[in-house]
Amino acid sequence: MQEPSNFRQLCAEHRIAVTHQRQVLYEVMQGMEGHPSPEEVFDRVKEKVPAISLATVYKNIHLFMESGIFRKMSVHHGSVRVEMNSEEHHHMVCSRCKSITDIGEEELGLTSRRRRLSGGFLVERYAVDVIGLCVKCQQVVS
């Protein structure tokens, strides 16, 4: 987890004003695993800042994503999810329960990544979603 002085430096680098609510939000998110939704973040932040609103959480999560502090996960899964894992990876998405699990590039056999694709398309990053059924949902189907 970032120390308060490091959070201030991070905000300065990304040209974001430091507020108490943003600092608590950032610290809570740093302690979360997976791909939390704004609602999940709100539930945790509200324990530390009871007066915070869901709208404030949404606004600041979007600010963090737009500035590059956090990345937005693929929006194909019904709601905004925040990417907490800064390592290069992809996702397995359950088509039934919508759970999202990280998967490494090596497991998918993706080793070569070109920076330019056909038509001059410049690649910023690769994000592969593998859609299927998680183990829990497979048990329900069986």
- Global Rg: 17 Å
CATH topology of the largest domain: Arc Repressor Mutant, subunit A
CATH secondary-structure class of the largest domain: Mainly Alpha
Q: How many helical elements?
A: 6
Strand content: 5-15%
What's the story with the biggest beta sheet?
3 strands, mixed
Helical residue percent band: 40-55%
Strands, count? 5
Derived from helix and strand composition plus strand pairing, the structural class reads alpha+beta
- CATH homologous superfamily grouping of the largest domain: Winged helix-like DNA-binding domain superfamily/Winged helix DNA-binding domain
Structure summarized in a few sentences:
With 142 residues, the protein is an alpha+beta fold. The protein contains 6 helices and 5 strands. The protein folds into 2 domains: 4-77, Winged helix-like DNA-binding domain superfamily/Winged helix DNA-binding domain (Arc Repressor Mutant, subunit A), CATH 1.10.10; 87-141, Ferric-uptake regulator, C-terminal dimerisarion domain (Dna Ligase, domain 1, 2-Layer Sandwich).
